[in-house]
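Changelog-adjacent note: as of this version, every example in the card shows the full chain rather than a window. The one below runs 485 residues end to end.
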Amino acid sequence: MTNPRRAFLSDLGMGVTGMALGAMLADDGVVRAAESGGSVPAPTQFAPRAKSVIWIFLSGGYSHMETFDPKPALNKYAGMTFDKTPFDNPVNSPLHKKRFRSVPSEEINVRDVYPTIFPMQVGWKKRGSCGIEMTDWWPHLSKCVDDLCFVRNMWTTDNDHAAENQFHTGRHKLDESQPSVGAWAHYGLGTLNENLPKFVVLGGPTRSDTRESIDSLYLGQQYAGIPIALDPKNPLPFAQRAAGQTLELQRAEYDAIHQLNALTAVEYPEDQALQARIRSYELAFRMQAAVPEAVDFSQESAATQEMYGLNQEATKVAGQRLLAARRMVERGVRFVQVFPSAYGSWDSHQQLKDNHTRLCANVDLPVAGLIQDLKQRGLLDDVVVVFGTEFGRTPGLELRGGGNTGRDHHPNGFTVWMAGAGLKKGYVHGATDELGYHALGDGHYVTDLHATALHLLGLNNRTLEIPGRKRLEIDHGRVIDDILA
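Full-length structure tokens:
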């Protein structure tokens, strides 16, 4: 029979405060390792190159050809079918079936195999002293190209928007769900700031069915991402003091909870969740001062706010989220996951030119501002920036519904870029074929990106397991050694 006092305390911990602060349940990696008998990794497993990660995700699938992997062959052979070009027909490549896993039957789902080549919708040229090609939709970010490291041979398997979760968890929609990359970073690392979460989420999850992108699942809710609102007056709506409750009254309430928990801890000394909860309430109390300060942009100069585009309506939302990300890592947050755009925004089945023109303008200046700001503050030596999307877009023109202005989903090859601590600068790794269809060679499945980011934090993704939960080979990924400085 359940101990009634213990049940009461458990219910209390899962109340309003518990829901908002689940990720605070363990506030120190060294203590976690000791409490779990060593099953949880120490703060780092080898010398880290970076202290924090800013993980920027553009939901919907931007076109790699119209952003960071221009393909002039699309213009040369526009209007032709794949089999009329001098290149091998990419649909007949064995890579197509190897890296393609459709939820509907292949006979029903014709995605990805549109054979009529759609020309690039924007111009491009070589940028910076490194001469890396970028399209004209990135006038500000292109000035930072000498600090960026591109991976042009990414691939994944889900050709629907569940790929947003796959990009962060490494698993297809048809597979068992797994913790997100941010949760693994939280699980594996100690804290740099006892007053803030280790895993902060800005602008997400983009909707309820993308919760997996920040979730911790079997690791325990304490390792999940904490969504933060960019309102200094109410950044943690579930952790606000009740109306009329003074700071002193709340302090007394937390003290009372602590005493009740301490009594139960004597009775159940091996209950690690309870030990973690005891610490969580003190952290929750401290967060009420630390989090509002972290998202208070009034402390930033006018020049800095302008650098992120906070003074322009088109760039304000993305700019606020990215400036908050810089302020978070500056204060010791380990992993900040940023969604600059709304769910599915980059999904350009039709009107790709109009859609990408507008969306690139929304994020180009703020992202460039982040890179410049980190660099001038010396933070680019301590922080890894990851910039990606769930898949690319088809080289062929999407024909469904009589379409003639867009591209469909394309998991077979796309581009992400990284910047910062431990990475080569002004560098391109990997490639897609001449038409932008397949990631060449082995390419890099999304968990390779996870393994690389975690490696830079000092963590070996292959050792991040817990008893009773054996991870598959696909979960581990492999570090992209070629891009490491």
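Structural remarks: Confidence is low (pLDDT under 50) at residues 1-42.
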